[in-house]
Design brief:
mainly beta; Immunoglobulin-like; 2 domains; 3 helices
Length: about 270
């Protein structure tokens, strides 16, 4: 009888030990799957000296309402977005997140620490709603386990900075126009424009929409249009200096993860 009780006791002990192991395994399996996100700022330029945007923080939301906002970056500093062209980026937020869909993100921008410099003169750049609700974007970022999701934010300075007031005493407000692109499903268009002295603006156009803009580098003539979804584009070259003709190249193909090289694009002087 004692042997039977001993055997039963050992069986119970072993069963309990197995249960503990299984429960531990279940708890390990139930831990959230984690991915990561990185948010990069770049700019479609404008003929100002500087456009300085003070970004307080960057947040994403995994709900349809206002309950799920999570901070992924707190730069608390100013970015001169006119420096962010031709493949130059600034990381404004980076964090680990639970895997899943994040429909929205927002940049919380200072109301009164922004400025624009035009012809050497600095002006305040007021943000009507930046401090309260942030600049909200629909991004539908799908975060997957073990994978970094890189979000490119193309800040269109030309359409974002608005002049107000009288010509003698102008004021400026910032109404951000931003295009968000998942780097993993995008490609680029690059090349060089000559003569360099033409100081060309380069546009990537799909249909009637201008989807990316940059200035050719004033020292090398090189340009890079980034964050373009796969497809065909018309690339337009507009000189900022007199004495050169505009030029367009149609049917430029963009493939995911690749840079289409247009090599050297020559702008001709107008024929007399």
């Amino acid at each position: 009888m004692k042997k039977i009780k001993s055997t039963i006791s050992k069986v119970i002990t072993a069963a309990m030990a197995l249960m503990v192991i299984l429960l531990a395994g279940c708890s390990l399996d139930s831990s959230p799957q984690m991915g990561s996100i990185e948010v990069r700022l770049h700019d479609a330029p404008v003929d100002f000296d500087e456009v300085n945007i003070f970004v307080e923080r960057v947040e994403v939301n995994n709900t349809e309402g206002d309950e799920g906002w999570q901070v992924i970056g707190e730069p608390n500093r100013s970015f001169n977005i006119l420096e962010l062209t031709n493949g130059v980026f600034e990381v404004s937020g980076s964090a680990e997140l639970e895997a899943g869909l994040y429909p929205q993100m927002r940049l919380v921008v200072s109301r009164d620490a922004n400025s624009v410099v035009i012809d050497g003169e600095e002006h305040g750049l007021f943000v009507p709603s930046g401090a309260e609700t942030g600049v909200k974007l629909n991004v539908n970022a799908e975060i997957q386990e073990g994978i970094q999701y890189t979000l490119l934010l193309d800040f269109d300075a030309q359409r974002s900075v608005r002049k107000t007031g009288q010509a003698q005493t102008p004021g400026y407000i910032l109404q951000p126009v931003i295009r968000a692109t998942n780097e993993a499903i995008s490609g680029n268009i690059g090349g060089m424009v000559e003569p360099i002295d033409a100081r060309s603006v380069v546009y990537a156009i799909a249909g009637s929409d201008t989807l990316s803009t940059t200035y050719a580098d004033t020292e090398s003539g090189e340009f890079l249009l980034v964050g373009l979804e796969e497809g065909e584009y018309t690339v337009a070259f507009e000189p900022r200096e007199d004495g050169y003709d505009s030029k367009t190249i149609e049917g430029v193909s963009v493939n995911v993860g690749e840079t289409t090289d247009l090599e050297t694009v020559e702008l001709q002087e107008p024929s007399e």
